[in-house]
Amino acid sequence: MIIHPPYLLFLGDAADELAAKTAHGIADWRPEWCVGQFRLPGCRADLHLPDLTPAEAAAKGARTMIVGVANAGGVLPEHWTREIVAAIEAGFDIASGLHTRLSSRPAIAEAAARHGRALLDIRHSTEHFSTGKGVKRPGLRLLTVGTDCSVGKKYTALTLEKAMRARGMDADFRATGQTGVFISGRGAAIDAVGADFISGAVEWIAPAAAENHWDLVEGQGSLFHPSFAGVSLGLLHGAQPDAFVVCHEPTRRTMRGVAHELPSIAEVIALTIRCGRLTNPAIRPFGIAVNTQHLGEDEARRLLETTARELELPATDPVRFGVEAIVDRLAEAFPASVGK
């Protein structure tokens, strides 16, 4: 798929900031591509971009409107159809990471055909994946895992990519979700892959590589989440990670979308090692990434210090404080992967 920037990011009537995490990810990592945001009444998300109608955004040069919402089940609400059709009529291609295909709505499909505009369903790959083989392949891999959904796994992997490259390490972010694909321009949305092929799809996303090359695989969901653990487990087996980083949001008490309590970081480490050993017996943790956006700086630093001491691992907020301590640990354990 070819997605033409610049973008207008459609937030619909997102219930909160996390519901617009796709748009937030694009705006944070590809700000030069983002002309503005298009919000409906009642929207509670804000990218702090100019609020524009499709006509206004088209006049500023935007070419693609991206549906930037990631809701439960990846559904396309019926009342968004009219707004998407209006954007097509204003000259936009439409790209979406939802499970519902844009073309499944007759009004959208008809408008796109009439105006010669593209409908791009990023979540639905055209690749035919094999089942996973679980055979150790060359190269080094790091997987971000979580205590819950939407805790910073993608941001942690992207921040690690940037820091590792600055250190002279050969590292590439590997997208496994729709937002990551929008950001990197490659990858596949693992949660839209048939269950039998999840691990095989991850083997395709992060294939055999040079001995000291790092693939930084974006994690999804949580092994403890009753809705998404199957995706998380298949991803873990396909990634065959040599290293993993646990991502956590400390202010939550229940997992997103369900009533289950969050597991502890220690529980996530133990289960990740136990399950991950199936395809890589050498798997081990290298750090903790804590999303401290809801904490003051002093409180955040105290929490990170306590977490690092209790778990004997580097603990940081990647966005707020960087990931240098985690990269130091990786460089020490895999010195050949550090550039000269």
TrEMBL record:
<feature type="domain" description="D-glutamate N-acetyltransferase-like C-terminal">
    <location>
        <begin position="131"/>
        <end position="327"/>
    </location>
</feature>
<dbReference type="Pfam" id="PF07755">
    <property type="entry name" value="DUF1611"/>
</dbReference>
<dbReference type="Pfam" id="PF17396">
    <property type="entry name" value="DUF1611_N"/>
</dbReference>
<dbReference type="InterPro" id="IPR035086">
    <property type="entry name" value="DgcN-like_C"/>
</dbReference>
<feature type="domain" description="D-glutamate N-acetyltransferase-like N-terminal">
    <location>
        <begin position="41"/>
        <end position="124"/>
    </location>
</feature>
<dbReference type="InterPro" id="IPR011669">
    <property type="entry name" value="DgcN-like"/>
</dbReference>
<protein>
    <submittedName>
        <fullName>DUF1611 domain-containing protein</fullName>
    </submittedName>
</protein>
<dbReference type="InterPro" id="IPR027417">
    <property type="entry name" value="P-loop_NTPase"/>
</dbReference>
<dbReference type="InterPro" id="IPR035402">
    <property type="entry name" value="DgcN-like_N"/>
</dbReference>
